[in-house]
Design brief:
- By secondary structure, the chain is an alpha/beta fold.
- It is rod-shaped.
- The chain has helices spanning about 5-25, 70-75, 95-105, 160-165, 180-195, 220-230, 235-250, 265-280, 295-310, 320-345, 360-385, 395-485; strands spanning about 45, 45-50, 60-65, 80-90, 125-135, 140-145, 170-175, 205-215, 250-255, 285-290, 290.
- The relative contact order is 0.09.
Amino acid sequence: MPSISSRSLEFSQNQTSFSSLLSRSRNCLYAKNPLNVASSKPVPLVKISKVSSQTFSSVRYIATGINPEAEIILARLPAPLFIVAFTGFGRTGKSFTASYIRKQLSGGSSDVEFVSAPGNVPCTHGIDMMVFPHPDGFGSMVFLDCEGGANHNSTAIPFVIGLAARLSSRIYVFERGCFTTGGLDTVMQVVNMGHATSANEVDISRSLVLVENMTINEEIPEEKLLHDLLSETSGDETTNRIRGLIRQRFDIEFAKLPYRSKYASEAFEEACIAIAGSMLQHLTPFTIANVPADGTTVIQLVTELLQQIRNGGSRYNMVSATEALVANMAMEAATTVWLDFVDHVKKIGNHPSQITSRKPLKVILREIEGVANGCINELEAFINKLAPNEPAIIAKNTWERNYKAFENEIRSAYKKKEDEMKTLSVWAQRLNMLVIEIASYVVEAVRQLVRFARFSTIVVLMSNYYLWKNCVTVVSGMAESVLMPN
């Protein structure tokens, strides 16, 4: 069994683009309130409505959407998710066995169990979901306990099997006593619900385990039981064709569970331990379009599939559902990369709202192109991993459209600033000329004042000179008349 470190390394290598892109775009309201998966109780995955027939005294059940409580739990789950589906005939011990395996995976003790009880009345209605930590401490386990087929009050079949099969990485199909071709009908429901007619047409799990509960074949090796069950030479044409299709479509294992009673439970416990060990050894993270999925992705997939049968449809088109999900993931990635691009552009001061026209337009566009190249490389690395790849092209088209619009916005902002600067320059020139003209008038006025002051000074000085000269003459004449009288 791989160690925690090897699991972490393998997942991180496959998860690089996902963790760097989608996880950044999914900071939902639960991001700061992570789920305590150790205490998660089983909850219904799907809401089911009862519709009464107007012509017959019968009742029809329709899946109307994902259960809100399940949606809250899933939205808090980061990748990786290891999803296991327990399907098959009703009253074959699916719920009880799933709870017992969960107990073994939790170290032999657990107070969380699916509802189970003896009798003819089934306990599971639709799909019950249980979440708990992976035993390695890396990721979360998600058990899907499905309503059984061939119950006297079967309600949600067949959509249950198709939905569980699409969501799971490993499918367990139960039959009681001896696994027969009747049990293979459950497997064919998986194929038929997914519109799968060839090995590679639809993206559902290849890992299939046929479980013979309360077996009557304890002495027969599991390999022989599986060989006889899927032999293409011992049945009629239709049966052999079904067997061949199942062998082609799935990687099949076989497991036996002995009858369990309060007096003989040791053999049952050993068989469950073996199943749990094989589960951990072969279980892989749930992926969509080659990308490890988180809980939000699972919500989107469930919603997309249920939308197809909301009005009473009986079959899924899983191809179109996967394509829709690929387009959604690609758009989320494109949006995240675009927001990162805009933030980076703002940091270097090249956002349209920051344009001042001081930096040449060519320099701005060259710097923006450098940032864009790194972002588009990250986006292309992500969308190239998606399969099918055609729906993912929308991300690149969206990026190119946004980038072209952003460039045009830069050019418009730069031209607007240039026009504003030109307008300001004209007014500045006019103001400068006015200031110069006023200054010249002021200088001329000062010059005239200086001239006037100088002239006034000269006038005053000349006036004083003639005054003193006349005064001296008068005084001299008076003195002469006094001193020299006639």
